[in-house]
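Morning. Coffee machine broken again, so started the prediction first thing and wrote up yesterday's gels while waiting. Chain of 228 residues, entered below exactly as on the submission form.
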Amino acid sequence: MRPLRDENPRQRFLQVGKSAMMTHELIALLIQRHDGDEDALDLAKKIQMRFKRIHAIRKATMYDLMQIAGIGPVKAMQLLAALELGKRLNQEGLGKRSFLGSPKKVYDHLKDDLEPLDQEHFIVLYLDTKGFLIDRVDLFKGSLNASLVHQREIFKHAVSMSAASFIMVHNHPSGDASPSQADKKTTQVVKEAAALMDIPMTDHIIIGKSQFYSFQAGHVMPVTQALH
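Came back before lunch.
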């Protein structure tokens, strides 16, 4: 008799529920054929061993997944689609009325979008008088440089939304959230312009891998030590 943990994932789902299932069992459930092929369990274990973390699977491309023997385009799409739904569910839970009153809350709001990226993305979050999010604007992607940050675009959106303040956010694909000289210069230039416009920039957050830097706080904060 096969041990319970190696039973068909569909049977496991019905017997113990989704929360009690192991990660590779959930993956197997997604990539099984309609006949409930048990080979999906071995294939799911290979996926988990290759990528280690769910976060790394979501970052993978279809091509990356299809390098594993047994994963074709359909199974790759099924898996990536399920992970994208999970990401969107998390974002939906945060909602547009998110309170972004601390650097950690900003990190939590954008980590799923920015941590997996291989290129820098520059985002501005516009807030109301109480620190709740009005909207976000993705301004550009590419290495941050003061000459590339068009202040007119930042303040045009701020005025149109009647924003009380804004927060700049960008990611470091290297994983190290420490600010570069370009980051520091950009922050200073925009901060001075914001003061003249009387729409304060309350912070500039750099998102790395499980860490972030807040110009307001002045240091890198590992996620495990960061305070809400």
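Residues 95-222 form a domain with the Cytidine Deaminase; domain 2 fold (CATH 3.40.140.10). Going to sketch it on the whiteboard this afternoon.
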